[in-house]
Amino acid sequence: WPDELPGVGWAYGIPRDYLRELVRHWRHTYDWRAAEARLNQWPQFTTTIDGANIHFAHIRSPEPDATPLIMTHGWPGSIVEFAKVAGPLTDPRGHGGDPSDAFHLVLPSIPGFGLSGPTWETGWEYHRVGAAFAELMERLGYRRYGAQGGDWGSAISRELGRIHPERIIGVHLNHIPGSSATEEPDPAHLATLPPAERARTLASWELNQQWARDRQGYADIQSTRPQTLAYGLTDSPVGQLAWIAEKFKEWTDSRDRPEGAVDRDQLLTNVMLYWLTGTAGSAGRIYYERAHSAWGAAPEPSTAPTALAVFPHENFIPLRHIAERTNNIVRWTEYQRGGHFPAMEQPDLLVADIRAFFRGLGR
Known about the structure:
It contains 15 helices and 8 strands. The protein is globular and about 55 Å long. It is of the alpha/beta class. Helix 9 (226-235) packs across helix 10 (237-250) and helix 9 (226-235) runs antiparallel to helix 12. It has an 8-stranded mixed sheet with strand order 1-2-4-3-5-6-7-8, sandwiched between helices. The chain has helices at 16-28, 32-39, 86-90, 126-139, 152-163, 187-191, 195-214, 217-224, 226-235, 237-250, 264-277, 280-291, 320-326, 342-345, 347-360, and strands spanning 44-49, 52-59, 67-72, 103-108, 145-149, 168-173, 305-310, 328-334. 44% of the residues lie in helices and 14% in strands.
């Protein structure tokens, strides 16, 4: 174990004592075979699209008129994120809901991630992933469907709506790319905003500055040298665990540790999909591909009906007046709890928001 400065908490990274405790649980208490059995309750498949292996779960609803919905994870997540929402979304009748709110779920692993990895050629940034997932839905026979996602999944889901608005019923996001204050707000522009939006804009800018100072390092590494990082993460399960678990503390509505927001075993199952497949490096390459194509460019306009569920401990503060420049925002809901992984942190809120959005569109 490396040395550690006393009394610094999480400021320098994941604390040694906490990581030791988590590793002990992983080694002696966590039951991978039980977690594997739960995952295997979902019908899962692989196919080849654009030269890449695509792994996906396809969970059909018992309701014959259910709406097809493709849900896409991000980094450092996986389809494990959706374990608590898959049942209520596919079988609302069995979970005390309205059967008319049912969905047929398609849960793909992004190329390079987990059972879709590794990738074997360059160029797999989110535009290409979006095109591949559109082909996946076509192969499954879904001509009209919804899309949902957060993190990279938000960019991919939004891309589906942008390139195929005739197929997409609606796009539901819990993070929306390019909607925060990335430049210091202009005083003249601020003066035109309502007081609440003005204050939110200033807060968004301050959070972006804080992110650049304190939290951007992981992305800088994965955007420039993902291969070098991969040796350490592929060699050491503790290193892989630390690299991921830190984000479930910093990016969630937690206080002292990730378990304040997410289930410990669900977190470990997510880590296992990276560790067992050796895809730390290939998953990180999505950052490199984006950084070396059009990192920071404004999103291309999308006409697809779009909803945003805003959780207070998300990494960035979205601004509706910016989001509406390139998105057809028809629903914007702000919640009082939750963070970057709402399917794990606040599954009931996320399920209710998804249902309400698509119900409002009349499917």
